[in-house]
EAL domain-containing protein (Chelatococcus sambhunathii), 283 residues
Amino acid sequence: RAKADGRGAARFFEAEMDARVQARRKLERDLRAAFALGELELHYQPLLVASDPRITGFEALLRWRHSERGFISPAEFIPVAEEIGLIAPITEWVLAKACAEAANWPSGVRIAVNLSPAHFRKQNPAFAVAQALAESGLAPDRLEVEITESVLLSDSAANIAMLHQIRALGVRIVMDDFGTGYSSLSYLRSFPFDKIKIDRSFVTELGESPQCAAIVRAVTSLGASLGITTTAEGVETTEQWERLRAEGCQELQGFLFSRPVPPEQARLLLSTPFSAALRQRRA
Ligand code: C2E
Ligand code: MG
Ligand code: MG
Ligand code: MG
């Protein structure tokens, strides 16, 4: 009996694994097809001057509306793209699309694009960056590339060389999700970043956790002494906004100001007096 039960459990387990493998294969096939058919989209989320708040730029964020499953988060499909060798072509597309869009914005407005660590492992993203700039005619100092600490974790000498090549093009290099890695501070020594984005988890707990508040204060003051801009991501309340401004954080991003929006709406945000609308909302 026990033996029979064991076999049953094993069969059940195998069936479950099989279903998972099938679902994963399907996701891979669907992602390849969606990319090939031009079904991936880019949305744009504003970055604002903390004291103003005027729009200084937008972050380009990938969106995938699956025909059966609906919206699939990039947090789910980017890792798949990385594993099936699709991240470099997708990033080339994102860079080209985002730079072309930004070329239509007022000249002070920047565009930020996320680069994946897997891209650095496969090839040199500096080529894709150079090509996007050449094709769009966008001034290099209007492009920012965001990397996470993991780019500096593996193959760091090679990756740092590639980062220097990107920077030599005149592009700004941003450390994304700062504070979530193992030794965040040491990464600031390995490359002269232009900007640090404080991870959303610190911003979320700003009100409740004195530790978080102290860390945010330390990072902004460190940034100031290193000549690095600090941005806070995930700002959702006016209290967080007030606090971040008081701590000397220069730039903000979050649902309080705007969610990521399609390009037409991003253009609209640029042409409406955004700060006035916000002041009204706060009052
Ligand atoms: P990220 O680069 O840290 O992007 C910021 C994420 O925080 C975005 O999630 C954005 O929608 C979200 N966010 C911004 N403000 C708020 C807020 O106030 N509250 C909350 N709850 N969330 C906020 P999204 O668009 O789902 O992207 C998730 C991650 O997927 C990104 O994190 C990035 O790592 C990756 N990703 C997105 N697009 C691309 C891309 O084109 N290339 C690569 N390599 N990765 C991408
Ligand atoms: Mg980012
Ligand atoms: Mg981020
Ligand atoms: Mg993040």
Observations:
- The mean pLDDT is 92.
- The chain is about 50% helix and 20% strand.
- The first helix runs from residue 2 to 36.
